[in-house]
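User: Quick sanity check before I run a bigger batch. Here is a single chain. Can you write out its predicted 3D structure?
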Amino acid sequence: MKRFEKARKVIKYIAFQQELDNILCYLEQESKGVDILFRSTTVMALVKDGKAVIGGDGQVTLGNTVMKNNARKIRRIYDGKVLVGFAGSSADALTLFERFEGKLNELSGNLPRAAVELAKEWRMDKALRRLEALMIVCDRDNIYLISGTGDVIEPEENLVAIGSGGPYALASARSLLRFSSLEAKDIVQEALKITANICIYTNEQISTETLE
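Assistant: Done. Predicted structure follows.
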């Protein structure tokens, strides 16, 4: 028994050291102004009945440590007429926000063309090709996923989800779409809540934006 107790203490000590190393690494990188890549998140969007809704959870995870619970991973751009959400490096995503909004302004708010033009730029620009982020962009009529390889994907059922909890959110939302009469916002919120009960990198601090 004493041997097991000693082994248990060693395991607890190692786990504590790992958590401490994660926190120290985060603080060191933050003090240097270095952006940290947070891969674990869930963001989803749905266009239904002339309404567009995008939502995301608030958890930011570094290694085995939850660093923040109320992060906002969705934005309104182009005078609030387009919704955007991201998964990946926050600095990279913000850079893409700026580029994408620039394309929207150039093309007078034409979302399909702006998405394609951004993807072309992403593929051709060496700096952009190193950006690590996925983006969802949508308005009341269109929804697109722009991948890190410069692909533009128009999802089925006007529904898309990204991040570690993306598959759970997508499956939940598809079921709600087919077997309920819920509004778009309710579907997004419920799907994200279900995801939070499955994916350890997703919490219930859900934020949403709606275009009507």
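Helices lie at 2-31, 90-106, 111-124, 126-129, 166-179, 184-196.

User: Great, the batch can go ahead then.
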